[in-house]
Amino acid sequence: MFQGSMVAMVTPMRDDGALDERALERLVEFHVSHGTDAIVAVGTTGESATLDHDEHAHVMRRTVEIADGRITVMGGCGANSTWEAEQLTRVAMEAGCAAALLVTPYYNKPTQEGLYQHFSHIAEAVPMPQILYNVPGRTGCDLLPETVDRLAEISNIVGIKEASGSLERAEEVIERCGDRIDVYCGEDARNLALMNAGAKGCVSVTANVAPDLMHRMCLAVLQGDATEAEALDARLAALHNALFLETNPIPVKWALAEMGLIGPGMRLPMTPLSEQHHETVRQALKLADAL
């Protein structure tokens, strides 16, 4: 249903942690003009865990308004409460988002049956396209392929962002479910490999700062141009590493501030990028022609 480079967009904030409305407009325009295929508003990279419900809803609505039909917008709607995730998904639908991205419940560590019931309940309650998101390294919860297989039978569950850290795992999901749902890579360093294995695109942190290169890399894979895809991915490789030197979204927000697109603000417990990493991130931006 969706494909290509989908940016896990940061949520810009002022020095005091307040939402930065003008910077949000700049970011959306930046992605519209640089070829990004879709924006994920207020996903986990967007610091969803530290926005309250009203702020979360506001950023989704404003992103859709600013995009004005020029680019697909998805809403980050995951939560560790099924009720809260359902409410956020309903807000995303009412705001005009094309899909909801739903991370597995964090900290709770539900069983596989609990995960099935969590996602199936939201899908049945809110009739909009929904994309699962598995990132056990951040949530402490792993959505196994057999559970994804069950969920793929639900008509409005249309995809999964797979970030388990295992290429073999992602390939198993594609083999089991790839004829019913689309698989997207959630780890930038593996984007090319997973797309070569059948993924339809990526939900990318790196696309925040190098949207044109990421879009072109994804397009090259989808068009079967392996030489071009490999060349573009090589130009992105340093960024894939540099943007995870500290916990995401710390490095990418510093990079965007260095590019003049946002200010340096973020909310505790996230803190600014350590000075020892500044030059590494700066050089990676230069290699990708982002500076």
Describe this structure in words.
By secondary structure, the chain is an alpha/beta fold. The protein has a single domain (4-225), classed as Alpha-Beta Barrel (TIM Barrel), CATH 3.20.20. It is built from 12 helices and 8 strands. It has helices at 21-33, 53-67, 82-95, 112-125, 136-139, 145-151, 167-177, 191-196, 211-222, 226-242, 250-258, 278-287; strands at residues 4-8, 38-41, 72-76, 99-103, 130-134, 157-162, 182-185, 201-204. An 8-stranded parallel β-barrel has the order 1-2-3-4-5-6-7-8, surrounded by 4 helices. Strand 1, helix 1 (21-33) and strand 2 (38-41) form a beta-alpha-beta unit. Helix 1 (21-33) crosses helix 2 and helix 11 packs across helix 12. The relative contact order is 0.14. The model has no long low-confidence stretch (mean pLDDT 97).
